[in-house]
Amino acid sequence: MNSEKIEIFDTTLRDGEQVPGCKLDTEQKLIIAEKLDELGVDVIEAGFPISSPGDFHSVSEISKLIRNAKVCGLTRANQKDIDVAAEALRFAKRPRIHTGIGTSDSHIKYKFNSNREDIIERAVQAVKYAKTFVDDVEFYAEDAGRTDNDYLAKVCEAVIKAGATVLNIPDTTGYCLPEEYGEKISYLKENVTGIDKAVLSCHCHNDLGLATANSISGVMNGARQIECTINGLGERAGNTALEEVVMVIKQHNHLQLYTDINSKMLNSMSVLVSDLMGMPVQPNKAIVGANAFAHSSGIHQDGVIKNRETYEIIDPEEVGVNASTIVLTARSGRSALAYRFKHIGFDVTKNELDFLYREFLKVADMKKEVNNDDLSAIIEKVTRKIG
Ligand code: KIV
Ligand code: ZN
């Protein structure tokens, strides 16, 4: 089968760090950047160099360190931002400048007090200027999700002519429906002259919980880069979660797409970012949450014990988790109990299990989870009774 590659653009260190209450120092950013490079991301957006001296320093140090991934710095569409980004990226082996401007009517009117023609002109000038420093220039049309497709196509055409090699189509406010976002990408593919010279990129926010679905819809309609963050961290409700899009693509061969991500590192990558950013991962988070491979109801446990595939679509080892877990609760059945007893060294008979199960339920009704110490105590109690 002829699969096509989806480039993974990680923006944990830029959009992800915009999470309220999060601050990483340069040392921490270097640790994350190095691990992202090892994970196999294609682009690391290292920061927004003009935003602070600290951010400039981080982008500069990351540029010196990273040998595989492209290192990218964000700018607004003005010369000063671009000068500073180019300077911060000076030591990068594969530098990319990511410049852009708001294109929705709301951004044009309220942020820039401007008009559509002027926005195109500023976009073109920014791309041309960035091109004087680097070959690899990505352009973002901020709030593209709420920009009408006809105007968006004009913006894209103009910046491609000016030299942009990647076109970022952000759903900045997380507004689009998957079908709508996919149609936007498809419209640009069909209506922008010169589109074959540029890669379309999805950058989706999660305000309606649709960031992953929208990004997947984007690549199903021709985008070839996804911008995402570890654990879906980012402004407000966050960005597209890297681990989710990578596993959707991996689990759905029929899409005929692939990424270069080493999925076995996803769990440890998630733990690292969560620890350094001080942002706990919600237990039910897809792929990397503590409960992503935990089974607690009797029916599910019985199925998983018989064959993992009954209730798991991913082998936990594929994402770096040793094994799925059987959590004992008052909802658990006999087979889960026998399984866990076996696990701690007690091979119980069917008759013994009946006694044990009754005792187990008494304990389980008083606790959220029955642990191994509880199981040993139950064994001891029942042995004394029977003995
Ligand atoms: O969400 C967005 O529009 C952005 C751009 C600055 C790329 O993060
Ligand atoms: Zn964003």
UniProtKB/TrEMBL annotation:
One Pfam family of this chain: HMGL-like
Keyword check for Transferase: yes
Pathway noted in the entry: Amino-acid biosynthesis; L-leucine biosynthesis; L-leucine from 3-methyl-2-oxobutanoate: step 1/4
Family classification: Belongs to the alpha-IPM synthase/homocitrate synthase family. LeuA type 1 subfamily.
SUPFAM superfamilies the UniProt entry points to: Aldolase
Gene Ontology biological process terms from the UniProt entry: L-leucine biosynthetic process
Identification of the protein by name: 2-isopropylmalate synthase
EC number: 2.3.3.13
Keyword Manganese in record: yes
Domain Pyruvate carboxyltransferase, residue spans: 6-267
Stored InterPro entries: 2-IPM_HCS-like, AIPM/Hcit_synth_CS, Aldolase_TIM, LeuA/HCS_post-cat, PYR_CT
GO molecular function: 2-isopropylmalate synthase activity
